[in-house]
Design brief:
Distance between the termini of chain C: 41 Å
Chains: A alpha+beta, B alpha+beta, C alpha+beta
Organism (chain A): Flavobacterium aquatile LMG 4008 = ATCC 11947
Keywords (chain A): Membrane, Transmembrane, Transmembrane helix
InterPro entries (chain A): Cytochrome_b-558, SQR/QFR_C/D
GO cellular component, one term (chain A): membrane
Largest sheet of chain B: 5 strands, mixed
Strand order of the largest sheet of chain C: 5-2-1-9-17
CATH class of the largest domain in chain B: Mainly Alpha
Number of helices of chain C: 17
Oligomer: heterotrimer
Number of strands of chain C: 19
Number of helices of chain B: 9
Number of domains of chain B: 2
Largest interface: B-C, 85 and 92 residues
Number of strands of chain B: 7
Structural class of chain B: alpha+beta
Order of helices and strands of chain B: EEHEEEEEHHHHHHHH
Helix content of chain C: 25-40%
Distance between the termini of chain B: 58 Å
Strand content of chain C: 5-15%
CATH superfamily of the largest domain in chain B: Alpha-helical ferredoxin
Protein name (chain A): Succinate dehydrogenase
Strand order of the largest sheet of chain B: 2-1-5-3-4
């Protein structure tokens, strides 16, 4: 019985919400640290970071944990909400809940659903491109040599590949006689020898900047992003300290501190996230 | 008391013939209500008026009228036990209302508390949760150990008492947006978890009580804290946290 | 009617032990063949049902509330007495026994009271084992406080909610048995008649209050634990639903009703506020540990206060009359309840009452002295030996809040006045009924197989109950007496087999109940049930209340008899029989209250003496103290029902013999 209780009971559902929620808070902190490089670092470092995040085995493991957490958190949340709605088939003609609870605590499901929608679009816009887009650009730099502008791919071994000498595929290379070509989206191959000679960086930085600076949709994207972060803030405002309560960590000494930290986290983290697109859209040259 | 005056009020009350009937909100006008009257005395006055008009009086649960039996309920103007905090409906007084006010009165709303009639609901789910484990298994005998044989730290005894002060009225369920009974169950689990007498059966108790709670169709706790605010006895959310701990301990055993 | 109290022979301290050792038993394998009905789930009922269930009997428990946990025992505030002598202040079983007999003004049975004192310690042990969170000292041991009528600290408590905690303890034991299937619980059920077969109690007719269905339940023994009848006064500290119906129905079936005129008026209740008042709220007697009771010395001051021209806090010390301290220096504010109540009434009747209601009835309960003394103590305890006046007041209020916070909050909610700043206004109100169904030493009524426990019986408190003794008696009866005596009775029933509910007796009883319900519903009268109940209450309070006299009692008897006729002719009960119908429930209860009220007046009239809660104005000394007549009235009056006309009831007497306590004038001076 004890085992099934850990899965099925109402309290166990709270544990899972709390554990996945807290893990996602950690993820947020990490994700934020990375994103901030969009402001405080250059494109290369950002793209290097993006590469690290998509290739390091430990990070991979963490990312799978994150996907599972999001999924579990969402599914568990929907399940809880469904049961909670069922627990009160007839509502009140007059209800005055603002007298006894915060607005975010009462709307976690709505906030959560909005966040889920955001996550999906966010992943389509960035994560999916990074992982699956065949046309994902590789990072290049433009250098002036001998009065001529030349575009070069940056390679992960800190080398360069002139863009002009690289064909999009082996077929192209054979047609145009380019010295090298791109395979597996990021790898540079020598056309004659068909051996790998280097690897480029997916230019997530460029994608991101383009996304928020887009003439048509950039402003809307920025505004929606900021709104999504506000939603996240409200979700965290209740969720963070709530998780500790669910895990049974409530005592007169610690609870006020947890609540304070939770509120600070809930406000600061989304604000920092939101600053980035605003910076890109309005200030990045 | 000398400051008492009379007010006229409008009432919107849920009327439902029986458990199966469909109910609706009905409107009544009641004049000359003394502000020194309790809320239930106001309802007595309404019923007297209805009886004199040969209409059916409003059924509502009440008994001790001193805030301890837990029989009275009522969702008044959108809040369990009305606008005052730390108060049962029977101790709510009409001085909290103004002349000309419209007052909404509804029964507790919860799947686990079906309406019996008008404002009366069936709270026997709470009894069944208690029967599932809300006790120390000690038979009556003249031979239990002396009451002072096991000293209990005052702090623990006080906390156990605060949890045990629950009157089982169901306001926590009624006010919770999820219709969750965790404050009630948490308080009972906590009372025993804090006392040496209750520790022996702690694991079985929390597992059984939570299982029964879930079976009764109560909702899940999302820590909104509304129950703590509306609880007439001020039972703390700490008790839910303690139950969560106890449940975890019991589950991984 | 022959009254055999069945008091065992032997020395008082050995009677119960010897008796218990020789009672007949029912073997464990036979117990499941036996059914027991317990009506009422307060301290006595819940503890009896739980204990009998534990033993293995099939128990059916009934209560009119929606849960057994709501019985009115829950409202007891102050505490429970037990002769533990944890405070080393000279307490003993004998002293508790003596205090209770004396407190009861020598109108209780010695043997019963001694048994109560003997098992009092076990109750505390049992309750602690169940997880009842009594108040404790910092050392982790149980705390005690003192109560009226005693000079030791023997009262165990849980803040101002002792009754609640004890009842929840008994309820938890009951719940355990329900969960195990040993007890079947019937909530929202009201017993409306007792069924007798061959002279023995064999079952009850109960109405399912939700569906209105009449149900027949059979059993080999019936336990009535339905509390007291204080609601005969309409206004009392009892719960709205508290009633005498079960006790009255068995009285009509042959159980003698004892000492109905012994009613306790509790001195510290919140005064009446107006005509729509539905009940009175008690402020625990424990407050008299800390509060001083006074009225203005001068009538003109009292008048100015009533008119709102003067505040009590403005009245100088020398203009206050601390009448209890003045009259009873030895016990002061902690005199027994009847004494304190009468003294308050005497002052108000003399024109010193301070409450601005129709009757000017109210006196002050003042905590300012205690605030100062406890505040100073608290300051000293903190090492501050020279505290400022504000500090002392602040610390004193803190102390009060810790001790009585919930009571003070309750007072403020009800009256809208802050008792930390201005003295509480209090006045006596009907609280407890010492009288009840007559029972023998086994707690068995004059109907074989019908047992009565707790406040519903008459046995332990004589003419006045001491504070914190009701909880003790309820649990003693349920946990430690009935399991033995009921088994003794049932030992002869193991061959009886299942009792059929199809017998003519059950059919007749059900039909009688059905007819009485139908006649009430068909009666197209013009007045509500409450109308009659309030009128009955007024007659009772004015003429059978705190002070009674021959002329008033005779009037009351006639007025109540007339009220009864009017009730049956003119009451209007809306709704139908087959639904939840609170008005019908009230009508059935008020019908019984009217009968009982008349009997109370008759009992008060025949008792030509003053004792305990029964104060006959004709029998008082020069200082207004009670004059008991031990020569002629040292008996229990046990009334025998003789039909519809209550005035025809026959008075039987059980002589009280005091072998171990020297009977004396009751002196608290």
């Amino acid at each position: 019985m004890a085992k099934s209780a850990l899965l099925k009971s109402s309290i166990a559902k709270k544990y899972w919400m709390a554990l996945t929620g807290l893990f996602l808070c950690l993820f947020l902190a990490g994700h934020l640290a990375g994103n901030l490089q969009l402001i405080f670092s250059d494109a290369l470092h950002f793209n290097q970071y993006a590469l690290f995040m998509t290739s390091n085995p430990a990070v991979k493991l963490l990312s799978y944990l994150t996907y599972i957490s999001i999924l579990f958190h969402a599914v568990d949340g929907f399940l809880l909400t469904y049961q909670n709605i069922k627990a009160r088939p007839i509502g009140y003609a007059k209800n005055n809940p603002s007298k006894n609870s915060s607005i975010s605590s009462r709307n976690m499901a709505v906030l959560g659903t909005l966040i889920l929608v955001f996550i999906v679009t966010h992943m389509v816009n960035f994560w999916a491109k990074m992982h699956f887009d065949e046309n994902m650009p590789l990072q290049t730099i433009t250098v002036e040599a001998m009065g001529q502008k030349q575009e070069l791919y940056l390679t992960t071994n800190e080398g360069y590949m002139p863009v002009a000498q690289v064909a999009k595929s082996y077929e192209d290379a054979t047609k145009t006689g380019a010295q090298s070509y791109i395979a597996n989206r990021t790898e540079f191959y020598n056309t004659q020898a068909k051996v790998k000679i280097g690897e480029g960086y997916k230019d997530l930085h460029k994608i991101t900047v383009a996304f928020f600076k887009d003439a048509k949709f950039g402003l809307i994207a920025t505004i929606l992003y900021v709104i999504a972060m506000a939603v996240l803030a409200f979700h965290l405002l209740h969720g963070f300290s709530s998780a500790f309560q669910s895990l049974g960590l409530n005592n007169p000494n610690w609870t006020p501190k947890i609540k304070f930290f939770g509120a600070a986290f809930a406000i600061i983290v989304p604000i920092l996230f939101a600053i980035i697109p605003v910076y890109i859209h309005f200030f990045l040259k | 008391m000398s400051s008492a005056k009379n007010i006229n009020i409008n009432l919107k009350i849920w009327r439902q013939k029986n458990a199966k009937a469909k109910g609706s909100m009905e409107t009544y006008k009641l004049d000359n209500v003394s502000t020194a009257s309790s809320f239930l005395e106001m309802l007595d006055q309404l019923n007297e008026q209805l009886i004199n008009d040969k209409k059916e009086p409003v059924a509502f649960d009440h008994d001790c009228r001193e805030g301890i039996c837990g029989m009275c309920s009522l969702y008044i103007n959108g809040r369990a036990h009305g606008p005052d905090t730390g108060t049962t409906t029977c101790q709510l007084h009409m001085r909290k209302f103004n002349d000309g006010d419209t007052i909404f009165i509804e029964p507790w709303r919860s799947k686990a508390f079906p309406v019996v009639k008008d404002l009366v609901v069936d709270r026997s789910a709470f009894d069944r949760i208690q029967q599932a484990g809300g006790f120390v298994s000690v038979n009556t005998s003249g031979n239990t150990i002396d009451a002072n044989a096991t000293p209990i730290p005052k702090q623990d005894a006080d906390k156990a008492f605060e949890a045990a002060a629950c009157i089982g009225c169901g306001a926590c369920v009624a006010t919770c947006k999820n219709g969750s009974a965790m404050l009630f169950v948490g308080a009972k689990v906590s009372q025993y978890a804090l006392l040496p007498q209750g520790k022996v059966e702690a694991s079985q108790r929390v597992l059984n009580m939570v299982r029964q709670m879930d079976e009764e169709g109560f909702g899940n706790c999302t820590n909104t804290g509304a129950c703590e605010v509306e609880c007439p006895k001020g039972i703390s959310l700490e008790n839910i946290a303690r139950m969560n701990r106890e449940f975890l301990k019991a589950s991984i055993k | 009617m022959k009254l055999d109290s069945k008091i065992p022979e032997g020395h008082i301290s050995k009677k119960w032990t010897d008796y218990k050792d020789h009672l007949k038993l029912v073997a464990p394998n036979n117990r499941p063949k036996i059914d027991i009905i317990v009506v009422g789930t307060g301290l006595a009922g819940a503890s009896a049902a739980a204990s009998l269930g534990e033993m293995g009997y099939n128990v059916k428990a009934f209560c009119y509330q929606d849960s057994p946990r709501r019985a009115h025992s829950i409202a007891a505030q102050g505490g429970i007495n037990a002769a533990k002598n944890y405070q080393n202040d000279g307490d003993s079983i004998f002293r508790l026994f003596y205090d209770t007999i004396k407190g009861g003004d020598y109108r209780a049975r010695e043997a019963n009271v001694h048994r109560l004192a003997e098992v009092s310690g076990n109750i505390i042990d049992q309750c602690v084992a169940q997880g009842v969170p009594f108040a404790r000292e910092y050392g982790g041991l149980l705390d005690n406080r003192s109560f009226g009528g005693t000079q030791v600290q023997r009262t165990f408590y849980a803040a101002g909610q002792t009754g609640q905690q004890l009842l929840l303890g008994a309820y938890s034991a009951l719940s355990r048995q329900i969960g195990l299937g040993r007890v079947k619980q019937f909530n929202r059920h009201e017993m409306l008649d007792l069924v007798k077969v061959d002279g023995k109690a064999r079952g009850i007719i109960a109405r399912n209050l939700v569906t209105g269905e009449l149900e027949r339940h059979s059993a080999h023994a019936v336990v009535i634990a339905t509390g007291g009848y204080g609601n005969v006064y309409f206004l009392s500290t009892n719960a709205m639903g508290s009633n005498v119906t079960a006790g009255w129905k068995i009285h009509k079936k042959g159980a003698a009703f004892a000492n109905p005129c012994f009613v306790q008026i509790h001195p510290t209740c919140i005064p009446v506020h107006g005509v729509n008042q539905s009940k009175l709220t008690l402020m625990s007697e424990s407050l008299r540990n800390s509060g001083r009771i006074w009225v203005p010395k001068k009538k003109e001051d009292a008048e100015a206060i009533r008119e709102g021209k003067l505040k009590p806090t403005q009245l100088a010390e020398e203009d206050r009359d601390y009448f209890l301290e003045r009259r009873y220096p030895a016990f002061g504010n902690l005199v027994p309840r009847d004494v304190a109540s009468r003294a308050a009434k005497e002052r108000c009747d003399a024109g010193h009452g301070i409450e601005a209601n129709d009757t000017n009835e109210g006196v002050y309960l003042d905590f300012s002295t205690e605030i100062q003394s406890k505040g100073r103590q608290a300051a000293y305890a903190k090492g501050n030996h020279n505290p400022s006046a504000e500090e002392v007041t602040k610390l004193g209020k803190q102390w009060l809040e810790e001790k009585y916070g919930n009571l003070f909050t309750m007072y403020q909610k009800i009256t809208d006045e802050n008792p930390y700043e201005t003295p509480m206004k209090i006045y006596p109100a009907v609280h407890y009924t010492m009288g009840g169904v007559w029972v023998d030493y086994n707690l068995q009524s004059t109907i074989p197989g019908c047992f009565v426990a707790g406040e519903a019986n008459f046995s332990d408190h004589g003419a006045n109950r001491l504070g914190a003794s009701a909880l003790m008696q309820g649990l003693a009866d349920g946990y430690f007496v009935l399991p033995y005596t009921v088994s003794n009775y049932l030992a002869d029933e193991i061959r009886t087999g299942k009792i059929s509910t199809e017998s003519q007796e059950f059919i007749d009883a059900e039909n009688n109940v059905k007819n009485s319900i139908e006649s009430l519903l068909k009666n197209k009268g013009s007045k509500s049930v409450d109308h009659f109940h309030k009128r009955l209450g007024l007659i009772m309070w004015n003429k059978v209340g705190m002070a009674r006299n021959e002329a008033g009692l005779k009037q009351a008897i006639e007025e109540i008899a007339a009220l009864k006729e009017e009730f049956y002719n003119d009451v209007y009960v809306p709704g139908t029989a087959d639904e939840l119908n609170p008005e019908l429930e009230k009508a059935l209860r008020v019908a019984d209250f009217i009968d009982l009220g008349q009997l109370m007046a008759m009992d008060a009239l025949q008792r030509n003496e003053s004792c305990g809660g029964h104060f006959r104005e004709e029998y008082q000394d020069a200082e207004g103290e009670t004059l008991r007549d031990d020569e002629n009235f040292s008996f229990v009056s046990a009334w025998e029902y003789m039909g519809y006309d209550i005035s025809k009831e026959i008075l039987n007497k059980e002589e009280l013999k005091y072998e171990f306590i020297k009977i004396a004038a009751r002196n608290y001076k």
